[in-house]
Design brief:
Distance between the termini: 56 Å
Order of helices and strands: HHHEEHEEEEHHEEEEH
Helix content: 10-25%
Length: 236
């Protein structure tokens, strides 16, 4: 599994390459910034009714004893700003279809009652700590009809303000090459920033996987306001 530092360095390199022309003429502008995580569509299936259990373990619902179907995945990472500083007290939410390709949304699950995995929570949230860290236990995403690239939706917010909405994709999955959302509207470097590996955890007796994904935000509204307040007053 990639370390946070190595993953962040790779992001910085990709961001610099994607802006190579500007990089050589305004080097200071990019040299100390990480590449921002690109935004992607929220899609139609953010839960229209949140589950009773909204914690960061999507495998078990409340006090249930039957786990969800699928390859159990420990999804971890950090939320950072463009300087690499951690963003604490941010809420990250994830949602995805179950192993039978059913979302926790009445427009989808209402038509697939017998197909839906009732033991999969489908949605979870976590508040970042002092290092900007987050963690979830979920399943490895699977393709969905019309979306050949398996993916996990996520959003990051502070209070009632959403700072980023995007998706995590499986690095190297063949569906990435033909998926309209993965390929639409962004270049190859930005697409790479939304990929991560789902790797077997050594010694796991049940075949658990680990995936690490660093989220890099641009300036938040609060940061913009703070920066403006620090500028000298040049008026008359």
């Amino acid at each position: 599994m990639l370390s946070h530092d190595r993953h962040a360095s790779r992001r910085a390199f990709l961001g610099a390459c994607s802006a190579s022309a500007a990089f050589f003429t305004t080097r200071g502008l990019f040299a100390e910034e990480l590449a921002r995580t690109p935004s992607r569509t929220e899609g139609p299936f953010y839960p229209d009714k949140l589950p009773l259990d909204t914690d960061n373990d999507l495998i078990i619902i409340k006090d249930g004893i039957t786990p969800a179907v699928g390859e159990i995945t420990h999804l971890t990472g950090r939320v950072l700003d463009v300087t690499g500083s951690p963003v604490r007290d941010a809420t990250i939410e994830i949602w995805q279809c179950d192993a039978n390709a059913v979302y926790l949304h009445t427009a989808d699950s209402g038509q697939k009652v017998d197909q839906q995995d009732k033991n999969f929570q489908g949605f979870g949230r976590f508040t970042t700590g002092s290092r900007g860290e987050y963690r979830f236990r979920t399943i490895k995403p699977v393709p969905y009809p019309g979306r050949p690239a398996p993916h996990i939706h996520f959003l990051v917010k502070k209070g009632d303000r959403t700072l980023l909405t995007s998706q995590i994709n499986i690095a190297g999955h063949p569906g990435n090459e033909v998926d309209g959302v993965v390929r639409g509207g962004i270049g190859v470097f930005d697409r790479e920033l939304l990929m991560t590996d789902f790797k077997p955890i050594p010694g796991s007796k049940i075949g658990e996987l680990a995936a690490e994904f660093t989220i890099v935000l641009g300036r938040t509204p609060d940061e913009h306001a703070l920066q403006s307040s620090r500028k000298p007053n040049l008026g008359s």
